[in-house]
Amino acid sequence: MITIDSLMTLEAYAKFRKAEKPAIVAHRRLRSVRLGEHLNLQFEDERSIRYQIQEMLRIEKIFEEEGIQAEIDAYASLVPDGGNWKATLLIEYPDPNERRRELARLIGVEDRLFVEVEGQPRVYAVADEDLDRENGEKTSAVHFVRFELTPAMREAVKAGAGVKLGCDHTHYPAHAQITPETLASLASDLA
User: What confidence score (pLDDT) does residue 137 get?
Assistant: First the structure.
């Protein structure tokens, strides 16, 4: 659990960051799954969210308790609770004109993401519970999604079942098998 007392001071974090940044980047890379060329799901855990909070405190130079608690409150809901996986969905198009066009075509894409545990039915993402991130003209380039897994799915994953991540949006059909290394990391999120 992330609390004010469990976070580092800005000074301590500056030293930690310099020494540990390569390990944090490797951890995030391990927990990222690309879906086609343009969708990237970064599966969160306490370590990644703790790092995100510490980064925000550093960037914003927040050191007062109220500000620290506000950052914890903003991000803590992204830590999986043992029965789910939570991820940040990044829709990545480097060219601004292409990005604008594709974000208009991909309205609702966050609701068409799914995980499929071998031998189990698909589970679709619950998206953007904090606030709506799209309008009638376009979707956002960033969404927060949650995949609720049944006890049978969690047991299957822990027993080594394969897992496919997919999207069945009309304008972005894609799927990818989650690698064994990434799946091992994600399995550690499950109770």
Answer: 85
Q: Which residues contact 131 (CB under 8 A, 6 or more apart)?
A: none
Rounded to whole angstroms, the Cα distance separating 44 from 52 reads 10
CA 53 remoteness from chain centre: 14
108-160 pLDDT, tens digit per residue, is: 999 999 999 999 999 999 998 766 666 778 999 999 999 999 999 999 999 99
The answer to whether 96 and 150 have CB atoms below 8 angstroms apart is: no
Cα(115)–Cα(177) distance, integer angstroms = 10
- CA neighbor of 160 nearest in space, from 114, 119, 115, 113: 119
**DSSP of 1-53:** ---GGGSPPHHHHHHHHHHHHHHHHHHHHHTEEEETTTEEEEE--HHHHHHHH
What six digits make up the tokens of 176? 């990818």
Which pair of structure tokens corresponds to residue 177? Answer: 């098998």
- Beta bridge partners of residue 166, listed in sequence order: 114, 175
Q: Look up tokens 């409150």; give the residue.
A: 73
